Amino acid sequence: MKQYITRRVGYSLLSLFLLSLTIFLFVRVTGDPTTLLLEPGASEEDIVNMRHQFGLDQPLWVQYGLFVKSFLTGDFGNSFYYRSPVVDLYFERLPNSLLLASVAMVLSLLIGIPSGVLAAVRVGGFWDSAGKVFTLLGLSLPSFFIGLVLILFFTVYLGWLPSSGAGTAAHLIMPAFTLGWYFAAAHMRLTRSSMLEVLGSEYVKLARLKGLPEAMVIGKHAFKNALIPVITLAGINLVVMINVAVVVETVFAWPGIGRLLYEGISFRDFPVVQAVVVIGGSMIIVVNLLVDILYALIDPRIRLES
Amino acid sequence: MAVTSPTVTPPTVASRASFKWLEGFPTIPVLILLTIAFVALFAELLAPYDPQVGTLSLRYRPPFWQTGGSMAHLLGTDHVGRDELSRLIFGARVSMIVGITAVMVAGTIGTVLGILSGYLGGWVDQVIMRIADAWLALPALTFAIFLAAIVGPSEFNIVIILGAVYWTRYARVIRGEVLSLKQREFVRLAVVAGCPKHVIMWRHILPNVINSAVVLGTLMLGVVIVTEAALSFLGVGVPPPKPAWGLMMSDGKQGLMVGHWWLTVLPGLCIMLMVLSANLLGDWLRVKLDPQLRQL
Amino acid sequence: MSQPLLSLEGVSTHYVSQQGTRVVRAVDDVTLSLGAGETLGIVGESGSGKSTLALTLMRLLPPAARIVSGRMMFEGEDLLTKSDGEMRQVRGKRIAMILQDPMASLNPLFSIGNQVGEPIRVHEHASSSSAWQRAVRLLKSVRIASPETRVSQFPHEMSGGMRQRIVGAIGISCEPRLLIADEPTTSLDLTIQAQYLNLLRDLQREHGLALIFITHNLGIVAKMCDQLAVMYAGRMVEHGPVSRIFSAPAHPYTKALLGSIPRMADGGERLTAIDGQPPDLANLPPGCAFAPRCPAVTTRCRAEAPPQFTLEPGRGARCWLAEPLSMRSSAA
Predict the structure, then answer these.
(1) What chain A residue is nearest to B279 in terms of C-alpha separation?
(2) Cα dist from C285 to C22, C52, C123, C223, C292, whole Å
(3) Using CB atoms, which residue from A209, A212, A216 is nearest to C97?
(4) B128-144 tens-digit pLDDT
(5) ipTM of the complex
(6) pTM for the model
(7) What is the torsional sign of CA C84, C89, C91, C94?
(8) Which end of chain B has fewer CB atoms surrounding its CB within 10 Å, N or C?
């Protein structure tokens, strides 16, 4: 157990190291970072200061050390556009992203889990085929297309919902649905396959052999077991959602992390872009680690292994 | 193999077998993909107007069947008066070129690294796979945006970026295949016969993973096209005034609020059709060519 | 003679492929009977239809399988004419079944008490607390030490042998008349196997259970069973009292099976392996299914499938060689 966790922590640290190294090298190799990190038209003095701050006159590994050190101390530089520290901007936007992701997650689970169960219980039947079409559409339709079509119907034609901004529950509906759509399809697919696996298990067979009503076989014995991988994926996906909402937040002008990233690109505000990518990647690595550890704590097979 | 016209040959065992192989062939998706490819290839001949030049006095004309539309601009015009149909036609070329080359770049990098990783093992394997893991931690779109922000938008850069982002998926799958191929008789024989490693990888391993690479490539085509469209939509993809479908949707957004639906819906439908078709073809190929990939 | 507890008449179960083009005769025209408190062993190679026969009895077959003909009389009622709801009242209450894999048969998310008491709650509408008390007593009766603490534990806290005994406790929880055990000991090690078999015998005696024992281990049959049925390619090729079959097998397949048991006394003598492969059930030979592998095959065997010959009351064989010995042909 201890060994397992140590190994997983080691892998995660290695991933974080490689991720930071990749980002560092991409920024350095493609040119002088001062041109990216300083706003256009910066004074000669600024450039010299920046070069000194990043130690660009020093060897590459020293530069990398400074790069990591600045991240570890939470110093992601200043935004050119907002003229304030990037970290502050990030945490200002984070609650909005969390709100959007949570609602989208609830929607995706409300759609994905029941339809996945239905498809598995009626495997090969009508609901299964309908579910296949739904997953195909969910995984193929670009979210900006769905978002714009929703705006067209519910804002332009029907006038029911606001097309952009945040503040009321009405503002949340379309972005949450657009963001949740893809994940609903993913959750449905996993629920279906997980449910099918459980339905073929010996303990479900035994439950039937006990003469339990079918509702109890599926609702009690199969469903709860099938849910475990789905909930795990949902946990990881919540963090993924925060980091992939850039398109949805752009379409609906939702003031979250994704919108911050979009502004970062539009205003050529590189420190913002870099911060969003570094924090997002680290968040995902950490959540994957937490899920693995949690699994080890719950699942007796991993626990007994060591 | 003697190939004669199927209409005159009586059904033989072989032709029946090939029928069976074609079972569930996604005819409509393949026709759609062929149509898009045809349109992309002959865009100059098919497009009625120059896609990059508009007439400002003719802006926001709706498609011909709506009031105010005309047969002169079948699918209407955009915010600077460019012909929507012509832009869609040239947009097909952008999507096809970017999509296919990006898949090939990602496929080549991923296949080579996957073979090296799987066959050589040891530290080579560790290094490649750990890098792949770290890169996979970043959502593909975020990573692509980051790279685009560094290198700036251009069609060429997009291809390189998509290749850099998506090679990891190939590498993982191909590595898995190589690990099982390594245990096979013909590879072991080659090793015993003193065949050098690079020859084994090139002559014995590569031809056996090509199938998987092709299947994966078809499945990746949809993903890559959506990513390219999203990047263009966000303004870090194909730079204007080139007609890329994602960029067209982003431009069309301004007109959407006043009901100019065709500027977003039509390119959106094009993206959707192409991605759906690629996915359906990929799914079929996966089942037919490569049973090992079924779990994917 | 009183009515048997269970009697099967001409039961056939076929798997039909989706296009309806391939028919696999997994169980073909099986006739047998079992008295109350008796033990029947069903032996055969894997794929011979023994497990399908057991699932046919429970009417819990996979969707592709159909029971195409026959009658299954249990306590005077035909199980094949029952509705699904009525059948559910039989399962777990009057006929119980134990599966092959004890490790996988228990649901990892529920306590032992919950799972053992479940059939009691469902079939006897017992309250949770009385079902829990019954579960404790059941664990005691399958000889689980300190049942009061074990009952609230979870499957992963138990050893394989314990789990198998818990599965046994679930089987007898509603005092069924018939217990079907499908290779219940294959995944246990030898000492635990022996303990478990003793336990099953004791339970049988205490509760007056009839037992159907599905196995490929003739040693277990010799130890446990009164009656034996030998299955080959979906058909029952020989049946009768264990002692009679062991001393004078009538079917060449039974002979071969008995010959393949390693005996200590034989010393260095080689095992008799049966040459060849079991036939493809979707594509059976026209005559006797065993003909291609049979050492005593005749031209008639290849052309015509033998009917079941009754050698003496309660004993029969499907083999042309048995015809001269038969009392009368049971074939129409």
Answers:
(1) A140
(2) 15, 21, 46, 35, 8
(3) A209
(4) 988 888 888 888 888 89
(5) 0.84
(6) 0.82
(7) negative
(8) N
